Amino acid sequence: QKEVEQNSGPLSVPEGAIASLNCTYSDRGSQSFFWYRQYSGKSPELIMFIYSNGDKEDGRFTAQLNKASQYVSLLIRDSQPSDSATYLCAVTVGGGGSYIPTFGRGTSLIVHP
Amino acid sequence: DADVTQTPRNRITKTGKRIMLECSQTKGHDRMYWYRQDPGLGLRLIYYSFDVKDINKGEISDGYSVSRQAQAKFSLSLESAIPNQTALYFCATSELNYGYTFGSGTRLTVV
Question: Taking 80 as the threshold, does the pLDDT of residue A2 lie above it?
Fold first, then answer.
């Protein structure tokens, strides 16, 4: 059973701070890792993906992957109230070609002014 | 126009009725999916299709059926709706392993 775990939160940070969102996964064969942002009542939106160990930066977002410890993180620098949303982690296992992701249940982030 | 369009956006239906949710996409992706989202349960896969002739059950397919009418169209049917099928339904598309593009969702209420 593939599992992807996220703390449901809410994680509350002040405006301008760094928000750190974490995700752990159970399948060591996992190869691809995705972060989606979902505003309340809206659809998830892909914001980052990472395939290799280490950091990947895109604007204010940084994804960090550590396959040995089986976790992936999303850092949001200079957090803004507009970043308040639920962040979903998704993981796919390689091989076989299906690439159907397993989603975590999401972490709610609140950025307060 | 949105890349992935779902209709209707909201629907209230009665127990026992048949209902169809429709999804169309302009991404040109072969892969299409139907998910439902319930508070506290996250996204759960109902059905997926990798091409027009390929249909696969997801983790919660009971009570649902799908039709892939064309590369761009994938519809979800509830044969006889029941109240515990009240949820937010999302269609999504993808190209291999490059992440999903989701539609705007259909909020379905079964009374």
Answer: no
Indicate if the pLDDT at residue A94 is higher than 70.
no
User: Which residue matches tokens 């803004």?
Assistant: A80
Q: Is the peptide bond before A10 cis (omega within 30 degrees of 0)?
A: yes
* pLDDT score at B60: 96
The token pair that represents A75 in the structure block: 């850092």
Cβ separation B102–A45 shorter than 8 A: yes
> A9 to chain B, minimum CA–CA distance in Å?
12
pLDDT tens string A10-66? 999 999 999 999 999 999 989 999 999 999 999 999 999 999 999 999 999 999 999
Query: With contacts defined as CB-CB under 8 Å, which chain B residues touch A103?
Result: 42-43
Shortest alpha-carbon distance between residue B16 and chain A (Å): 26
CA neighbours closer than 13 Å in the CB half-sphere of residue A96: 9
Mean pLDDT score of chain A, rounded to an integer? 94
As given in the structure block, the two tokens for residue B17 are 């009725």
Token digits of residue B21? 């949710």
Is the Cβ pair A34, B48 closer than 8 Å? Answer: no
Using a CB–CB cutoff of 8 Å, tell me whether B39 touches chain A. Answer: no
